[in-house]
Amino acid sequence: MSDELRQLAKAISKVENLDFQALADAATLPLDSAAVHVIGVTGPPGGGKSTLCNQLIKELAVHHRVAALLVDPSSPFSGGAILGDRIRMQALVSNPNVYIRSLSNRGNVGGVASSLVSILRLLMHNGFQYIVIETVGAGQSEVKIASIADTTLVVSVPNLGDDIQAFKSGILEIADILIINKADLPGADSLYSALRESAQNPRLGWTPPLCQTVATEGLGISALLEEIHRHGHWLRQEGRLLEKRKRAAKFEVLELSRMLLQKHLDSVPAEVLARNLNRRGINLLQKLDKIYDELLNTFSEV
Q1: Which of 52, 164, 188, 301 holds its CA 20 to 30 A away from the CA of 260?
Q2: What is the rounded CA–CA span in Å between residue 276 and residue 158?
């Protein structure tokens, strides 16, 4: 690993651990680079997201620098990432154009890490042209990725059974591109028919394409990449990219505010918190409301 990447890894670790100075330093870095494409990959467990990401990164890295952020479920006690995805991507580690980093979601509902946008700032600053984010496999709770990624890929597989309706009514709504992976399995045609109608409903002028892949064989990856590039071009052409990045910045503020508060609350014994809430609940809530009012005023200054 080069000295540059070592420094990057240290900076990411500090940000992930909510080091105040590191977060403040990251916040000064621009998030609006049109030369960077942030791709989010989400979907139910067992959909082959890791294999699909592996294939996408391998192809993108032929001519570009690619960062892969793999959000793993965290231990409920240590908060550390399980690192399962990194183990599955060992073949890419030796590629000089690829940087792979596992992140803990720290139990965060939504399948993403709270410090993710700050980490995106660091990666953009370090010259990565593509950033691929694979979320935790947690189904409909993963809609937060759409607040961060420029292009959100939603991966499904045949034989979802009764889950298809829940899938269609939830996570499907955030898709910029729909993917049927393991398309060589029985039931792929019926899934295609079930999703096709939803895929024909345009959002803000963009109709999500429906791609079929067999990631283990590398089938359909080239066509998928074409759709990813087409969506990126559309975002820039229609002026939507800056809107996406502004939404990501707002997500950053909301998540870091929540996590910094939680970080401080975690240092106070639960029985002390409970006792004070029972005794002084209204006063505590009023103080908290005042703090957030002051914070909002700071962010609202022109």
Answers
A1: 301
A2: 52
Which amino acid, 128?
F
**Domains delineated in the chain:** 3-248 (3.40.50.300)
- Residue 55 clears pLDDT 80, i.e. is over it: yes
Residue (of 174, 170, 149) closest to 235 by Cα position = 149
The identity of residue 97, as a single letter, is N
As given in the structure block, the two tokens for residue 86 are 């990194």
The CA distance from 100 to 134, in Å, is 11
Alpha-helix runs per DSSP H in 108-186: 116-125, 163-169
Span of 85-94, 126-135, 190-199, 216-225 with lowest mean pLDDT = 85-94
Nearest partner of 192 among 174, 169, 168, 228, judged by Cα: 168
Q: What pTM was computed for the model? A: 0.87
| DSSP character string of 75-113 | -TTT--B--HHHHHTHHHHT-TTEEEEEEE-TT-TTSS-
Contacts of 127 (CB under 8 A, 6+ apart): 65
- Rounded to 10 degrees, the C-alpha dihedral 277/283/287/288 comes to 40
Q: Give the whole-number percent of the chain exceeding pLDDT 90.
A: 49
Q: Output the six-digit token pair for 257.
A: 């505010």
Whether 119 and 69 have beta carbons less than 8 Å apart is answered as yes
Helices (H), the chain: 3-16, 20-27, 49-60, 84-88, 90-93, 116-125, 163-169, 188-199, 221-237, 240-265, 270-300
